[in-house]
Amino acid sequence: MNGYNVAILGATGAVGSRLIDQLAQSTIPVKNLKLLASKRSAGKILQFKGESLTVEQTTVDSFKNIDLVLASAGGEVSKKFLPIAVEAGAVCVDNTSAFRMDPDVPLVIPEVNRNALKKHHGIIANPNCSTIQMVLALAPIRQKFGLKQVIVSTYQAISGAGQAAWQELLDQTKQHLYDKPMTAKITPVKGAAKHYPQAFNLLPQIDVFEKDGYTHEEWKMIHETKKILLDDMDSPDIKVTATCVRVPVEIGHGESIYLVTADKTATVSDLHTLLATAPGIIVQDEPAKQLYPQPLTATGKRETFVGRIRLDEENPGAFNIWVVADNLLKGAAWNTVEIAECLVADDLM
Amino acid sequence: MNGYNVAILGATGAVGSRLIDQLAQSTIPVKNLKLLASKRSAGKILQFKGESLTVEQTTVDSFKNIDLVLASAGGEVSKKFLPIAVEAGAVCVDNTSAFRMDPDVPLVIPEVNRNALKKHHGIIANPNCSTIQMVLALAPIRQKFGLKQVIVSTYQAISGAGQAAWQELLDQTKQHLYDKPMTAKITPVKGAAKHYPQAFNLLPQIDVFEKDGYTHEEWKMIHETKKILLDDMDSPDIKVTATCVRVPVEIGHGESIYLVTADKTATVSDLHTLLATAPGIIVQDEPAKQLYPQPLTATGKRETFVGRIRLDEENPGAFNIWVVADNLLKGAAWNTVEIAECLVADDLM
């Protein structure tokens, strides 16, 4: 075998362009790369390892002879095309929410529950961006000290809402700087009934609202976390609650996480030592040097950055931490490609 | 008596200009207004009720015949001049952190612990901006259901760091939009050893770091909250922990607050009813209509806005709420002027 035929579904989006880039840098031997997108984007020329590739419109015939599909074109597109791709013999790593909670679909962060890949039936789901960076930081702590409760508040970058929302933030920013009224046709949620400016503003709505008042983004953080951590280590349920807020940042989600360990003797120093050696994590936590994770310094990096590790002095075993990662890389494209690397390395293609 | 002689100390700052404005709109009868600032700002002309006033340099002689001082020129200035003003017969409402934790100085949010004003000895402290809006939302809940624990993550606007930091955010934003490197000489903390861009970035440092890894801003939220709530209603200690983050917003702090009530039967509907009738609070919480508090819509308002009220379904009696207020008004100038209104109304001048 001298390589895989790979297709990227949704190649022209914010995540798509990074999928191409991460694939180019990966250990996966690529024989041919097919770039797929909607009719609107077909014909665009994109680069892969110095080669010009023309984007093709996705059709039911797009997946013949394809070994690996990396998908990031929206939930409906994945629902429609991935079963066809699997039928045609491909393994699919899906970066949408379409199959994440399907009990037959592994939901994988390689550093946390790589073993779950063994159970795949053709589709592997990439977790939500905000879930990945949180669970990556929590898993080592849970392995060592147990984890009873997690309370998270997110500070999410606009690029997580897609390229058009991202552009709109920049447009709004310019309008505001030049004393023009800000226009909002996408933010906070594309297709929602109401739109509000995101520039110089905080919008506590990511995705649609559920009946209990939580947004679907918050729901995802709660339920995806439980699914992944149960793969990693069977144990009594961990309690999780979340508040998700969009902030006027381009790339890099921040998360303020309050965590309660089962072992009440855990110290800040223990968490430092543990996280400093955990895969995929870089600890940035030197208050005296003003070293802490920031979106601007995390942008373009594959790692997840953890800092501001503090004991809740009134609650032994409870800690505050601050976690930042590039939502388009570890939160999306890199985790997806990393899953594919593991599938290849573990002989699961 | 046909009015008070009032002095505003720090009249030219972001809060100072709003103190003038809030005083002009207040019920306080003003006989004469004296505007005080540093030597650098002396000579500036500012408007009060259509009258042009010249800013004077603050000296030890500035407080003769002054009845009321509203101070917002920094902790060191307050420490130096307020005792002199008190000695000269004035009552001082101080918007700096200089005297907040002094056991002889009431720390007051009028809607919460107005009665504490009776104990004053000439100086009354205005709490930290991030403390005020949180405690205003928590106090009614605590009165009705008891409050055991609070975990807060803040999303704080740059105007809380002063006018120069605010201008720097706008400059950085322009630099970034036009592909120029961002320069940082103030953000996140004036006078700190290192500076980082705030535009399109999150900085988890507000004020200096304490030895335990918490910032002084976080320390303030924890300890000021306890001091105010103990005035409001004696009860066993409430546990409080905080993570404070500066965000690229001009005006309006956001706070994601997790609160645990003593009464495990409290419902979302109970909190709605309670907060909707609480003084100084406007509930904005209709997910179906995408109604929730935002900094842009809270700017210029005296009220504190509460929304996203959700039960933590795995922890009866625990709730997530989202609170936004104009940090320069309820967080500073309005709360200061409101305290002064109460001093006048309660015959405590």
Quote the CATH topology of the largest domain in chain A.
Answer: Dihydrodipicolinate Reductase, domain 2
Structural class of chain A: alpha/beta
Could you give me the name of the CATH homologous superfamily of the largest domain in chain A? Dihydrodipicolinate Reductase, domain 2
Q: Helix and strand string of chain A, N-terminal first?
A: EHEEEEEHEHEHEHHEEHEHEEH
- Integer average pLDDT of chain A: 97
Could you state the oligomeric state of the chains shown? homodimer
Of all chain pairs, the largest interface belongs to: A-B, 62 and 61 residues
Distance between the termini of chain A: 12 Å
> How much strand of chain A?
15-25%
Helix residue percentage of chain A:
25-40%
Largest sheet of chain A: 6 strands, parallel
Q: What's the gyration radius of chain A in Å?
A: 20 Å
Largest beta sheet of chain A: what is the strand line-up? 5-2-1-6-7-8
Count of individual helical segments of chain A: 9
Total strands of chain A: the figure is: 14
Low-confidence stretches of chain A: none
User: Which architecture of the largest domain in chain A would the CATH scheme give at its second level?
Assistant: 2-Layer Sandwich
What does this structure look like?
The structure is a homodimer of 349-residue chains. With 349 residues, chain A is an alpha/beta fold. Chain A folds into two domains: 4-127 and 332-345, Rossmann fold; 131-327, 2-Layer Sandwich (Dihydrodipicolinate Reductase, domain 2). Helices cover 31% and strands 23% of the residues of chain A. The first copy, chain A, is built from nine helices and 14 strands. Chain A has a six-stranded parallel β-sheet with strand order 5-2-1-6-7-8, sandwiched between helices. In chain A, strands 10-9-11-14-13-12 form a six-stranded mixed β-sheet. A two-stranded antiparallel sheet of chain A has the order 3-4. In chain A, helix 1 (14-24) crosses helix 9, helix 4 (129-145) runs parallel beside helix 6 (216-232) and helix 4 (129-145) crosses helix 9 (329-345). The two termini of chain A are 12 Å apart. The model of chain A has no long low-confidence stretch (mean pLDDT 97). At the A-B interface, strand 9, helix 5, strand 10, strand 11 and strand 13 of A face strand 9, helix 5, strand 10, strand 11 and strand 13 of B.
